[in-house]
Structure formats: structure tokens, C-alpha cells
């Protein structure tokens, strides 16, 4: 049976950048973070709200990856006029291509009203500013396969697999277990059968995600 193939996507690294912009004496402090789920997103918002408790607004937006489905998207204007903060921030996040990302923009009112258009631009510019400092990672699905080899053949088989560009780890017991990590959807069975003259079979043993710096 064919296994469903998960899709790679972009998300922030573990750093949590902060960027500040100013518009007509109002200060906009944008904070970004990687958030794997809604609990983490809410916790990040609560952390920023507590850290800037004297600010008038703590507007937010986040996008979460859902494997095999559309991303989860949420935003909040937090007291700003409807549609002037959270949704514009969310549009910038969509344009970035990032998922598992949250941005909170804290506003300290400077005494001058910015108007609807001014608020939209200010919150979008603040979001763009902090995203410029985000380390972008490519999150890639990987499949794990294993095969059992006797000690006499293990070195040769491992060397042949590495020569074919496969990621191999060996663990030693009564036999040698070779663990192969490949791109999601890739089946190393043909390679294993070829180098072992059909005497060995490889078995799928789950999957995981790897983060690799993009670009």
C-alpha cells in the first residue's frame, strides 16, 4: 500500500527576533516566534502581553502547518478598529510563505491618530520588519527504513549504501541493524536488493521531520 507523502514547508528557526518601528510618535514593537501548535501560539501572545503590560494594544496573527490539510490561521485586532491590525498582519504572514509562525505587534500610542489606512500600513510594516530577521528553515519529511545484516556483510553493504548517497546508521547486536533515512515517499528497496543480489529486504520503520536552513 502506498504511504501518503507529507509536504515540506518553510517555518522560522528557534530564534525570536524583535523589531521596532515608529509612525507619528506611535511605537510598534513586533515580536516573532516559531509555534508548533495553538497552545504555543497562545502562550507566546500571553508572554508578550505580560512583557509589555503597559502597552495599549497587543495585536497578533499566526499560521500553523497541518499535514495533509489547510493551515490554521488566526488573527486579533486587540482593540484596534476591526480589520486594521490582525488581518493585515496575517496577509503579510501568508505572503512570507512561512508556517508555524506567530507575530505579535505591541503598540504604544503616540497621541496622533493614524486612520484606517495608516494603521493597516503600520501593522504590516512592523510585521515585515520582524520577518526580515527571522531565520528561515525548510521542514522536510523523512522516512526511516531498516534492514538486518550479518556481521560479515555489514561493512560492505553499509559502504555500498553510502556510495549510493543514502544516509545510513549502524547498530550492532547479534546482527547489524542498518537504519536508512530517505526523502518521504522514497523506497530504497530496489537499491538494497541490487547490492545484496536479492538476499536482503528493507522494512519501513516510521517517519520524522528534519529542519534544514533554507537558502
TrEMBL record:
Residues 24-131 form the Impact N-terminal domain. It comes from the Bacteria. Coiled coil: none annotated. GO terms for biological process: regulation of translational initiation. GO terms for cellular component: cytoplasm. InterPro entries: Impact, Impact_N, Impact_N_sf, Ribosomal_Su5_D2-typ_SF, UPF0029_Impact_CS. Gene3D superfamilies: Impact, N-terminal domain (3.30.230.30). It holds the Pfam family Impact_N. Belongs to the IMPACT family. This is Impact N-terminal domain-containing protein. It comes from Corynebacterium glyciniphilum AJ 3170.
Amino acid at each position: 500500500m502506498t504511504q501518503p507523502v507529507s509536504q515540506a514547508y518553510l517555518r522560522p528557526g528557534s530564534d525570536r527576533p524583535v523589531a521596532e518601528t515608529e509612525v507619528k510618535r506611535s511605537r510598534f514593537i513586533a515580536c516573532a516566534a516559531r509555534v508548533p501548535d495553538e497552545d504555543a501560539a497562545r502562550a507566546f501572545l500571553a508572554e508578550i502581553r505580560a512583557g509589555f503590560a503597559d502597552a495599549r494594544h497587543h495585536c497578533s496573527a499566526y499560521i500553523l502547518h497541518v499535514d495533509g490539510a489547510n493551515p490554521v490561521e488566526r488573527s486579533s485586532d486587540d482593540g484596534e478598529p476591526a480589520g486594521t491590525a490582525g488581518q493585515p498582519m496575517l496577509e503579510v504572514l501568508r505572503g512570507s510563505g512561512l508556517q508555524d509562525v506567530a507575530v505579535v505587534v505591541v503598540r504604544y500610542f503616540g497621541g496622533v491618530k493614524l486612520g484606517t489606512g495608516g494603521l493597516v500600513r503600520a501593522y504590516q510594516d512592523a510585521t515585515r520588519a520582524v520577518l526580515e530577521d527571522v531565520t528561515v528553515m525548510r521542514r522536510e519529511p523523512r522516512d526511516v527504513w531498516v534492514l538486518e545484516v550479518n556481521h560479515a556483510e555489514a561493512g560492505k553493504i553499509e559502504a555500498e549504501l553510502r556510495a549510493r548517497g543514502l544516509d545510513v546508521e549502524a547498530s550492532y547486536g547479534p546482527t547489524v541493524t542498518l537504519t536508512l533515512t530517505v526523502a518521504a515517499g522514497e523506497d530504497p528497496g530496489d537499491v538494497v536488493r541490487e547490492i545484496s543480489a536479492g538476499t536482503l529486504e528493507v522494512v519501513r520503520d516510521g517517519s520524522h521531520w528534519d529542519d534544514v536552513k533554507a537558502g
